[in-house]
Structures are given as C-alpha cells and as structure tokens.
Design goal:
It is built from seven helices and no strands. It has 170 residues and is mainly alpha-helical. It starts with a helix and ends in an 8-residue tail after the last helix. This is RNA polymerase sigma-70 factor, ECF subfamily. Residues 109-159 form the RNA polymerase sigma factor 70 region 4 type domain.
Length: 170
C-alpha cells in the first residue's frame, strides 16, 4: 500500500474511531486529542502495518493502547511520593493529646438514650445498627418490612431529639 493509499484509508476510518475515543475518554476535547494521537502514531508506524490485515482493528488497538498509556502517565503524575525523613516531627510542639473523656461521656449518653427507647423501637434499631438488612429484621421479628423501616425511623428521630445537645459540637 502506498503512502497516499494509506493516508486515504486513515482519513476514511477516522470517523468510525471517534465514537470509540469518546467512549474511552468521556470528553469531546480529550477524544479529539486521542484520535489525533492515534492517527499520528498510525501514520508514523505505517511500515509496521501488514497489507491484507484489518486496518480498522489495527487503529482500534493503537487507540486503546494510547489511551491506556496516557491514563497511566496521568496517574503517575498525580501520585506524590514523600521520600523525606519524618525527623521534623520528633521535637514538634504542635501535637495535641486528648484524654478521650469527652468521647466517653458522649458514648454514655448515647447508650443511655438507646436504652431509654421502647423495646419495639430499640430492637429493630439495634439489629439494623449491627448490620442486619430490613428483610432479615422483618423475618426475625415476624413483622412487615414497612413496620421495620418505620420503627427504625422513629428510633432515629427519638435519638436525635434526646441527643440534641451534641448537634453543634465538634
């Protein structure tokens, strides 16, 4: 295939490659860049193309590999590797030490608020908190799933009211 024939074939197939580029990049400008890079690579490597093989498949492969290479390059650029020693933290006076008393008080209040709930609300709420799905709770308690959802909602609402003092504290 002559250079002119190869160039004509590339030009003819470029329109069919554009949707694939859009699918890969999900951005019109990036897709145009990828298409252009693919065409440049295909033209500069035309001597590697074997006559009689599928030119379209060859172009799709070049585009996919170009996209993967560009993506890997972008990920490497975005990765920050700190190679410095962390010796500057040894004598730092900016560190804070908390004794956890506030967390202990808050946990005591949360536990008391949960214990203060009526059993019909507390049991489904605690089961959901422990990771049970709504349908598992409904099956275990032998009540409709809508009732389970309602009771958990009411329990959350009551707990918000009882723990209102913690709302704006950080």
């Amino acid at each position: 295939m002559t250079t002119l024939e190869f160039s004509y074939s590339l030009n003819k197939l470029s329109s069919s490659l554009k949707p694939f580029a859009l699918k890969l990049t999900r951005d019109r400008d990036d897709a145009n860049d990828l298409l252009q890079d693919t065409m440049v690579k295909a033209f500069t490597n035309r001597d590697k193309f074997t006559d009689g093989t599928n030119l379209k498949a060859w172009l799709y492969t070049i585009m996919k590999n170009t996209f993967i290479t560009n993506y890997q390059r972008m990920v490497r650029r975005a990765t920050f590797v700190d190679t410095t020693d962390n010796l500057h933290f040894i004598n730092s006076t900016d560190s804070k030490i908390e004794n956890g008393a506030y967390g202990s008080f808050a946990m005591d209040d949360i536990t008391a608020a949960i214990d203060g709930l009526e059993e019909v609300y507390k049991v489904p709420f605690m089961m959901h908190f422990r990771g049970f799905k709504y349908h598992e709770i409904a099956e275990d308690l032998q009540i409709p799933i809508g009732t389970v959802k309602n009771r958990i909602h009411i329990a959350r609402k009551l707990l918000k009211e009882n723990l209102l003092v913690y709302r704006n504290l950080n």
